[in-house]
């Protein structure tokens, strides 16, 4: 079912269409069932007596990684539709002759900012500054501020803060994904430094 839901989302995105209520429910149920099943397996494996490094331990790790991949896929879809929605609203607003664009931008920013702050607090509490989740959130939010909200100063501040925090914990960096995310943050900081100083 996840495969079908994924194909549906990819088809909609490639045609610049959004999901209707039934399609959103299908996507939600498909991924919820997959993750729920894998979580049940993890609970069973956690209750079993296994020694570190055993086959069961490795199997549990494999299932946990599959859960992460599935959740990241859902987050990617959510980001695609959030950007699609924001761009659609801004295009509609820019065709109007009044202050509609500012109005819609303000709504998008307020709601997005609330979600970002909640995610940031949760991630900051649970993950090191070099963790891919934390770096990825900062990268996504800074790019959103730059590209959608047209706020290069805030984009720069978010990216710089995340990059500096990660540099402060560089000894904990051993993940290739984290290295790539730090490079992207650094590249954006360089680009946005030029724009904010001009």
Automatic annotation (TrEMBL):
Gene3D superfamilies the UniProt entry points to: 14-3-3 domain
A GO MF label: monooxygenase activity
One Pfam family cited in the UniProt record for this chain: 14-3-3
14-3-3 domain location: 1-198
InterPro entries: 14-3-3 (IPR000308), 14-3-3_CS (IPR023409), 14-3-3_dom_sf (IPR036815), 14-3-3_domain (IPR023410)
This protein's UniProt keywords: Monooxygenase, Oxidoreductase
Family as reported in the entry's similarity comment: Belongs to the 14-3-3 family.
Name of the protein described by the UniProt record: Tyrosine 3-monooxygenase
Lineage, broadest ranks: Eukaryota, Sar, Rhizaria, Retaria, Foraminifera
């Amino acid at each position: 079912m996840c495969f079908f839901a994924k194909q549906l989302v990819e088809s909609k995105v490639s045609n610049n269409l959004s999901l209707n209520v039934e399609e959103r429910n299908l996507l939600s149920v498909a991924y919820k069932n997959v993750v729920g099943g894998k979580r049940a397996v993890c609970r069973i494996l956690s209750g079993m007596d296994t020694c570190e490094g055993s086959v069961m331990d490795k199997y549990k790790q494999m299932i946990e990684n599959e859960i992460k991949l599935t959740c990241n896929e859902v987050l990617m879809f959510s980001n695609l539709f959030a950007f699609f929605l924001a761009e659609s609203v801004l295009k509609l607003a820019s065709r109007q002759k009044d202050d509609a664009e500012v109005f819609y931008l303000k709504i998008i920013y307020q709601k997005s900012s609330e979600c970002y702050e909640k995610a940031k607090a949760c991630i900051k509490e649970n993950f090191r500054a070099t963790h891919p989740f934390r770096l990825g959130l900062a990268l996504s939010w800074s790019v959103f501020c730059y590209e959608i909200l047209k706020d290069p100063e805030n984009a720069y501040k978010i990216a710089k803060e995340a990059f500096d925090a990660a540099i402060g914990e560089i000894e904990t960096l051993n993940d290739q994904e984290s290295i790539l995310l730090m490079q992207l943050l650094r590249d954006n900081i360089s680009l946005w430094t030029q724009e904010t100083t001009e």
